[in-house]
Amino acid sequence: MTGQNRKDITPGLKVNIVLKEDQRSGKLTAGVVKDILTNSSTHPHGIKVRLEDGQVGRVKEILK
After folding, report:
1. Looking at the predicted structure, is the pLDDT value of residue 1 above 90?
2. Per-residue pLDDT tens for 6-64?
3. Cα–Cα dist 24/35, whole Å
4. Angle, CA of 38, 41 and 19, to the nearest 5°
5. Residue 9 in contact with residue 48, Cβ under 8 Å?
6. Which of 1, 13, 37, 54 has the fewest CB neighbours in a 10 Å radius?
């Protein structure tokens, strides 16, 4: 599942995000959502979140 819809993302969910500095390479970082930072219901590049370890990026996929 992609991370473009805010309703699909909740705190505690395990996701892969792309950090700002990794946008060119597309390198993914796995983590658990702490906060949802995007206010709109959808975003074409992924919903911006803060992980429990403090890293911020856009959700690229939601892990099971």
Report:
1. no
2. 999 999 999 999 999 999 999 999 999 999 999 999 999 999 999 999 999 999 999 98
3. 24
4. 35
5. no
6. 54
